[in-house]
Amino acid sequence: MDSLAKMRVDVVKMWVDDNRGRLPKLTPEIWRAAIRQARWHGMKTFVHLWDLEDARGLARDGVDVIAHSIRDKEVDADLIASLKRNNVTAVGTISRERSLFAYASGPEWLDDPFFTKSVTPEVIRELKSGAFRKKQASDPNLDLHRKAFDIDVRNLKRLADSGVRIGFGTDSGQPGRFPGFFEHWEMELMVQAGLTPMQVIQSFSRNAAEALGTASLGTIEPGKAADLIVLDRDPLKDIRSTRAIQAVYVGGRKLQ
Questions:
Q1: 34, 3 in Cβ contact below 8 A?
Q2: CATH code of the domain in which 164 resides
Q3: Number of C-beta neighbours around residue 152 at 10 A
Q4: What is the pLDDT of residues 5-17, one digit of tens each?
Q5: Whole-model pTM?
């Protein structure tokens, strides 16, 4: 933490997950020390986790953001109360979980122009190929991925309904997870999980800014950075309308 602080780091992410028994898990003693020292330097701590019990300890010990949600069990009232009491933000990244088995049968958006315009024809051919689908379909953890997705979806809905701050993320960047498009897919999946379009919009705007401690971002108000998109259709009626982009502004300057 001390060396990262010298690099002017804002956020530190920890990995608290044994990858289904294949890796040693970060111990509570280490994560407590990391959180304490990061806070002393003014840095925020995010954590990749899987288990409900780890989430309990991390929330109690002061982590700022939990990512990928809890995927071994459904969240309970005690955890929800702890997340709210300690001002912890929860990020579901349900598109990440869905992508781990979606290609086995081929997601419907492979022919969606909004997706195809952002990737090469070679990539699309590979994603549609029988070899690629067979590779994912033969994953021995396929049923585990499906179960994790279902638990993640239910937990996201319950956390949102309970007033826990919901953030936004996709864990995209790895093969088969496409930055840009996956953000829009995440929004769609969040609405399918039961969140309202407004809750989804707030997750990537106001809530994300609050989680990061960036007071100049997140909402459209006088004195704040004018980073925004202008849409042709109302996303409150259909969250897929976020794809009908008319213009993009950064710092009040029109880019598109």
A1: no
A2: 3.20.20.140
A3: 22
A4: 999 999 999 999 9
A5: 0.94
